[in-house]
């Protein structure tokens, strides 16, 4: 009986070590904090739909293959979710939201753009996939809120591919004071 106590002790110790390290595993996250989280591996967590054995559709948190440079073990704050206008219950994330002027206004607002690097990194890469440089889109939003992503794409042509935020100074950009809306 004494020999069984040691393996049980090791098992319990490994659980407490895992918990004390606060490792984030997407599949272990509740669905209400899954979206906009980053696992300890540096990969983004995504909310997906899956059918259970009974055929009912449920949401599950999964690890994507998208690696976030210089960020891991991160769950986006409720403040950033609200400030950026994103939804934790989104199934997948699309660049289509960048076409929505209200969404872009929230994303480019200083409360989001300067304080929520995880969300900005995600949409920076989505915009780049569409040939748009997010700082240019935000500058257009700040200087002329009526100018949409479609206008930016058609007037400037395709932007260069994604560049690391370190090289572009993405998070060092200061938003100008919003123009009066009269």
How would you describe this protein?
Pfam families: PAR1. Keywords: Signal. InterPro entries: PAR1 (IPR009489). This is PAR1 protein. It comes from Gossypium darwinii. The chain has 182 residues and is an alpha+beta fold. The protein folds into 2 domains: 24-75, no CATH class; 78-84 and 94-172, no CATH class. The protein is 42% helix and 13% strand. It contains 9 helices and 4 strands. Strands 1-4 form a two-stranded antiparallel sheet. It has a two-stranded antiparallel ribbon with strand order 2-3. Strand 2 and strand 3 form a beta hairpin. Helix 4 (101-108) crosses helix 7 (134-143). The radius of gyration is 20 Å and the shape is globular.
**Structural class by secondary-structure content:** alpha+beta
Main sheet makeup: 2 strands, antiparallel
The amount of helix comes to: 40-55%
Strand portion, in percent?
A: 5-15%
Backbone CA Rg: 20 Å
The overall number of domains is 2
Task: Give a short summary of the structure.
The chain is built from nine helices and four strands; from the N terminus they run ααββββααααααα. It has helices spanning 2-20, 31-34, 78-84, 101-108, 110-113, 117-129, 134-143, 149-156, 165-168, and strands at 37-38, 43-51, 57-67, 74-75. Residues 1-22 form the signal peptide.
What's the SSE blueprint?
Blueprint: H1 2-20, H2 31-34, E1 37-38, E2 43-51, E3 57-67, E4 74-75, H3 78-84, H4 101-108, H5 110-113, H6 117-129, H7 134-143, H8 149-156, H9 165-168
Antiparallel strand pairs: 1-4, 2-3
Helix pairs in contact: 4-7
